[in-house]
Amino acid sequence: MLKIDAIHLREINMPLAYPFETSFGLTTGRRILLVELESDGHTAWGECVAGEHPYFSDEMIDTAWIIAETELAPRLLEAELSSGGECPDLFKPVRGHRMAKAALENAMWDLEAQVEGLPLSELLGGTRKVIPCGVSIGIQPSPEHLMDKIAQEVGAGYQRIKLKCKPGWDTKIFEAVRARWPEILLSCDANSAYRMKDIDHIASWDQFNLLMIEQPLWYDDFYFHAMLQKRLETAICLDESIRNRRDALAAIDMGSCRIINIKVGRVGGFSEAIAVHNAAAERGIPVWCGGMLETGIGRAHNIALSSLPNFSLPGDVSASSRYWTQDIVEPAITVSAKGEIVVPTTAGSGYPIQKDRIEALTVRRTTLHAKARVTA
Fold first, then answer.
1. Which residues lie across from 94 on neighbouring strands?
2. Of 275, 269, 338, 330, which Cα lies nearest the Cα of 297?
């Protein structure tokens, strides 16, 4: 049984190495909630991907902290679980708050992998030895800056280039990129920036031979995405709309998308991420792993998840150096010249934590301890 002795919640503040802009706005640094579990001499970590504001989802770091401290962590301290996969049932009375749940559940999977002496990827059911990597490029100050950025990432070997877009930063940008790089694997991500009045405009993007158009319409929509998909030759990929396996099945059956982005925090943890992966695989829908500006802790978990067999498209699991001057894992996560990451084979996540670095970045913390357990 996996008995938790203590749970440490920490907020760290980390400046991004480069600003990252989407249709939500510009991000220059991250407030990040980290979860540390202590259990019988083992230490395991999880990362909450909720942002500073409730823009990508209705969660934010401050709500996640409250839910983790007052609801989820106490339940976990009182429980005796045999696997991380039992966390969804344990947390079921708490509605929503999937990113907070994922931080604790994923740490439990990491703990289980350490106790069993298995790589986290193997415990999750992964089969890939290496994973293909793409890169997400934010909205830039100018088209010239964007071209320089793409040239840098193509030169680094990334297998897919994804461009953030919004009204006014789309068609002309795609034209310029395709004129210079007609053959690269290219996609775009709108983060729900468009509406049905833009349907003809979006349909014109078929000319650019995009791998996919990610979440062009409302963040909680299937119906209008299905209408749009009928107008497009290009595949729609859903991100924010997919919260669980049921959503994935509904979107696929309605024809709302032909590709699904799985973000482990968005769906509530590894258990639901695996369920979404399996549902898509059963219906021949490819998936890939999206990124949320994670530190090396969350990035290592994304690597493990991406080793599952239906993660057949390059994900947003890129090198630490694209986001952080100094990461909180050692060694930092790197991508080969072929645009690949080797999946770790050591027990747990495979990326040791830089505890001193985390301590230096910590601005808030609390610790919850298990009550004394009485053995009959």
1. none
2. 330
Among 164, 172, 338, 355, the one annotated catalytic:
164
Owning domain of residue 27: 6-116+354-369
**pTM listed for this prediction:** 0.95
Q: What CA–CA distance (Å, rounded) separates 41 from 2? A: 12
CATH of the domain at 54: 3.30.390.10
In this predicted structure, what is the pLDDT of residue 106? 98
Structure tokens that stand for 287 in this block: 């998936």
CB-CB neighbours of 299 under 10 Å: 27
pLDDT of residue 376: 45
d(CA 198, CA 202): 6
Is 164 noted as a catalytic residue in this protein? yes
Is residue 101 among the annotated active site residues? Answer: no
Among 3, 263, 355, 371, the active-site one is: 263
Is residue 348 domain-resident? no
Residues 376 and 343: their CA atoms lie apart, in Å, by: 43
Number of domains in the chain: 2
pLDDT in tens, 201-260: 999 999 999 999 999 999 999 999 999 999 999 999 999 999 999 999 999 999 999 999
141 shares a domain with 77:
no
Annotate 297-322 with three-state secondary structure.
Answer: HHHHHHHHHHCCCCCCCCECCCCHHH
